[in-house]
Design a protein that fits this description.
The structure is a single chain. This protein is of the alpha+beta class. 30% of the residues lie in helices and 22% in strands. It contains twelve helices and 15 strands. The strands form three sheets. Strands 5, 11, 12, 13, 14 and 15 form a six-stranded antiparallel sheet that branches. A five-stranded mixed sheet has the order 1-6-4-2-3, with helices on both faces. Helix 2 links the parallel strand 2 and strand 3. The mean pLDDT is 97.
């Protein structure tokens, strides 16, 4: 074996349930030290420290503050942008640096303390955390939302993802109630995995009927979407095989990145050629498996990114995976049950997969999703070295359908959702409408129309759109 072959040799996770809990810097330090201990690596030997963006707090110098806490002087330091694919991009870059002989070791970590932030807010207090950035930097978007999406108030994933779900529902011919029941059947087994995961946020097995509770972004219910406000942290340590030998890491505690790939759909939901499906997912999976020299049938375990059901369904559609496959769709319990710590989840799924592959040899697939089903990572991990790494160059980029900012006239609904407030009442409808020259966003505000939208399929239906030049309003 090439002595530069990268392997994952250290893992750590933490979940804090007592609030208020530690701040993110404390969590980073805790899991970093634990992962380094698991790797038998003195923290001062780290060549690279990379941190996934945290939504909980904006530090003045996040990587520098962690390095100072650890007493490390890494020559390579990275703090990511916001994205559910960020952990795999950092891991992939670290592995590439090790394979090229540029690094011997790398720490990738991330943490959120959003449950603690919420506890402070409820108490009317500010989080008393350290080293605040001053001035506070802009939010870590790679790209801000489209001006038309912002004008219509459509930028939260809990509203964009169900638009794509309704488009897929209509495309495959599912009735409204059938989609809900199928979704609950797919996700109930995930709650059983979470119940057995000591790091899961919601450790309760639930029946399909119990998941059909109050709506948030119709047709999604509160119990079938990612739980964001969690206090969780994870870290992994990668090293060259040469360093792993020097540290005395046994072969059965080394896990290898056999191959991975990155792909992109359009950044805007309305711009997506097909709202309910993703050729980018198919391309990412195909490239990752080809680089790994393995296929879906070779996988002993799977963790498919599950922030919303449409992410699971598009993945299953694209790679030919039965959503009720006996291997299961998750090793953690998924983002709605194990926890969805902002951009950080894939660190948890990767650490859990690595632990599983240590315990039983084999191969595992870990996927990631970023933004509004825009970015996709597929990574094949194995107890056996081999394959070729791949990288972050997109293996697919989608061609955009033009977004028409202002429109008056007749259009046809391509996808839609109804936003529900904290009390459960329907508040506002969001539509993507096919119009001459492209697609437009529109809102629905009349209560009787919102009720009808939840009872009858709107996708494919003609609606009237009026505009004030900024906001388009649909009716029928």
């Amino acid at each position: 074996m090439d002595p530069r072959t990268p392997c994952l040799i250290g893992i750590a996770q933490r979940t804090i349930r007592e609030q208020p809990g530690p701040e993110p810097l404390d969590l980073w330090e805790s899991v970093a030290r634990a992962a380094a201990d698991d790797a038998r690596l003195p923290v001062g030997w780290l060549d690279s420290i990379q941190i996934v963006h945290t939504d909980s707090w904006q530090y003045d110098a996040p990587v520098g503050r962690l390095a100072e806490r650890l007493g490390a002087t890494p020559r390579h330091q990275v703090y990511s942008k916001v994205s559910g694919t960020a952990p795999q991009l950092l891991i992939g870059a670290a592995a590439a640096g090790i394979a090229a002989g540029e690094l011997e070791s790398a720490l990738v970590t991330g943490a959120e303390a959003l449950a603690t932030r919420r506890a402070y807010r409820k108490a009317g207090e500010h989080a008393p955390w350290s080293h605040a950035a001053d001035p506070r930097p802009p939010y870590g978007w790679e790209r801000p939302p489209h001006p038309s999406a912002l004008a219509h108030g459509l930028f939260l994933p809990v509203h964009t993802y169900p638009i794509m779900e309704t488009a897929r529902r209509a495309a495959v011919g599912l009735a409204i109630q059938d989609e809900m029941r199928e979704r609950a059947r797919i996700m109930a087994p995930m709650t059983e995995v979470a119940a057995a995961n000591p790091y899961a946020w919601r450790r309760v097995a639930r029946t399909p009927d119990e998941l059909l509770d109050r709506f948030v972004g119709w047709p999604y219910t509160r119990s079938t979407v990612a739980v964001l406000e969690v206090d969780q942290a994870a870290a992994v340590v990668l090293a060259s095989s040469r360093l792993a030998d020097r540290l005395g890491v046994p072969q059965d505690r080394r896990v290898y990145l056999r191959g991975w790939a990155y792909a992109e759909d359009t950044w805007e939901v309305a711009a997506r050629p097909a709202l309910g499906s993703s050729p980018a997912v198919a391309a990412a999976a195909r490239a990752a498996f080809e680089r790994a020299g393995l296929g879906l049938d070779d996988m002993h375990a799977l963790d498919v990114y599950s922030c919303f059901a449409i992410a699971l369904r598009q993945a299953c559609d694209a790679i030919g995976l039965d959503p009720l496959d006996p291997r299961g769709l998750t090793v953690t319990g998924g983002l709605p049950y194990a926890g969805g710590p902002a951009s950080d989840y894939v660190l948890h799924s990767t650490a859990t997969m690595a632990g599983l592959l240590r315990a039983q040899s084999g191969h595992g697939l870990v996927t990631g999703v970023g933004m509004h089903l825009t970015k996709h990572t597929y990574a094949v991990w194995s107890s056996e070295p081999g394959g070729r790494l791949g990288g972050a160059t997109p293996v697919h980029t989608a061609e955009e359908v033009p977004v028409v900012a202002s429109y008056s006239g007749v259009g046809k609904v391509a996808g839609y959702t109804v936003a529900h407030g904290p009390g459960g009442a329907a508040e506002k409808g969001f539509l993507v409408v096919e119009v001459p020259g492209g697609r437009a966003y529109a809102v629905v505000e009349e209560a009787d129309l919102l009720a009808e939208a939840e009872e009858r399929e709107l996708v494919g239906r003609e609606v009237r759109v009026a505009t004030d030049g900024k906001v388009n309003v649909a009716s029928w």
